[in-house]
Fold this sequence. Notes:
Layout: H1 6-12, H2 17-57, E1 71-74, E2 83-86
Antiparallel strand pairs: 1-2
Amino acid sequence: MASDGEITAMRAAGVSSRRVIAPVLVFAAIGAGLAGYASLRLTPFAIRESTRIIKRSAGHATLRGNSAARFRTRISPTPSSTWAMCGPAR
Length: 90
Protein backbone atom coordinates (compact mmCIF):
# COMPACT_ATOMS: atom_id res chain seq x y z
CA MET A 1 0.00 0.00 0.00
CA ALA A 2 2.85 2.38 0.77
CA SER A 3 4.48 2.01 -2.64
CA ASP A 4 1.27 2.97 -4.42
CA GLY A 5 0.69 6.00 -2.22
CA GLU A 6 -2.53 4.56 -0.80
CA ILE A 7 -1.53 5.29 2.79
CA THR A 8 -0.81 8.91 1.87
CA ALA A 9 -4.20 9.17 0.17
CA MET A 10 -6.01 7.67 3.19
CA ARG A 11 -4.23 10.03 5.58
CA ALA A 12 -5.14 12.97 3.35
CA ALA A 13 -8.76 11.80 3.44
CA GLY A 14 -8.66 11.77 7.24
CA VAL A 15 -8.52 8.02 7.88
CA SER A 16 -6.68 7.31 11.11
CA SER A 17 -3.76 4.89 11.39
CA ARG A 18 -5.69 2.79 13.91
CA ARG A 19 -8.47 2.21 11.41
CA VAL A 20 -5.95 0.99 8.82
CA ILE A 21 -4.01 -1.21 11.25
CA ALA A 22 -7.06 -2.87 12.86
CA PRO A 23 -7.82 -5.34 10.00
CA VAL A 24 -4.13 -6.26 9.76
CA LEU A 25 -4.01 -7.05 13.47
CA VAL A 26 -7.22 -9.10 13.26
CA PHE A 27 -5.85 -11.27 10.46
CA ALA A 28 -2.50 -11.57 12.25
CA ALA A 29 -4.29 -12.79 15.39
CA ILE A 30 -6.27 -15.33 13.36
CA GLY A 31 -3.07 -16.58 11.73
CA ALA A 32 -1.29 -16.82 15.07
CA GLY A 33 -4.24 -18.72 16.52
CA LEU A 34 -4.23 -21.23 13.66
CA ALA A 35 -0.47 -21.69 13.94
CA GLY A 36 -0.78 -22.26 17.69
CA TYR A 37 -3.57 -24.79 17.20
CA ALA A 38 -1.52 -26.66 14.61
CA SER A 39 1.51 -26.66 16.87
CA LEU A 40 -0.29 -27.74 20.03
CA ARG A 41 -2.90 -30.16 18.66
CA LEU A 42 -2.13 -31.33 15.14
CA THR A 43 1.61 -32.00 15.53
CA PRO A 44 1.25 -34.43 18.47
CA PHE A 45 -1.62 -36.15 16.65
CA ALA A 46 0.52 -36.55 13.52
CA ILE A 47 3.42 -37.95 15.56
CA ARG A 48 1.14 -40.48 17.30
CA GLU A 49 -0.36 -41.59 13.99
CA SER A 50 3.00 -41.97 12.27
CA THR A 51 4.32 -43.99 15.22
CA ARG A 52 1.22 -46.19 15.11
CA ILE A 53 1.64 -46.77 11.36
CA ILE A 54 5.34 -47.60 11.74
CA LYS A 55 4.65 -50.07 14.57
CA ARG A 56 1.83 -51.70 12.61
CA SER A 57 3.96 -52.07 9.48
CA ALA A 58 6.98 -53.43 11.40
CA GLY A 59 5.67 -56.98 11.22
CA HIS A 60 4.25 -56.73 7.73
CA ALA A 61 5.29 -59.62 5.46
CA THR A 62 6.64 -57.42 2.66
CA LEU A 63 9.07 -55.75 5.04
CA ARG A 64 10.59 -58.93 6.43
CA GLY A 65 13.95 -59.89 5.00
CA ASN A 66 15.02 -56.36 4.17
CA SER A 67 17.36 -54.64 6.57
CA ALA A 68 17.09 -50.99 7.47
CA ALA A 69 18.42 -48.51 4.89
CA ARG A 70 18.59 -51.18 2.18
CA PHE A 71 16.21 -51.65 -0.69
CA ARG A 72 15.99 -53.33 -4.06
CA THR A 73 16.00 -51.25 -7.18
CA ARG A 74 15.85 -51.91 -10.87
CA ILE A 75 19.04 -50.97 -12.75
CA SER A 76 17.54 -50.78 -16.24
CA PRO A 77 13.95 -50.15 -17.30
CA THR A 78 13.69 -53.25 -19.51
CA PRO A 79 11.53 -56.21 -18.39
CA SER A 80 14.59 -58.47 -18.14
CA SER A 81 16.43 -55.96 -16.02
CA THR A 82 18.78 -56.80 -13.21
CA TRP A 83 17.90 -56.12 -9.59
CA ALA A 84 20.54 -54.73 -7.26
CA MET A 85 20.70 -54.16 -3.53
CA CYS A 86 21.26 -50.52 -2.70
CA GLY A 87 22.20 -49.08 0.64
CA PRO A 88 25.17 -48.59 2.94
CA ALA A 89 28.09 -50.95 2.51
CA ARG A 90 28.66 -53.44 5.30
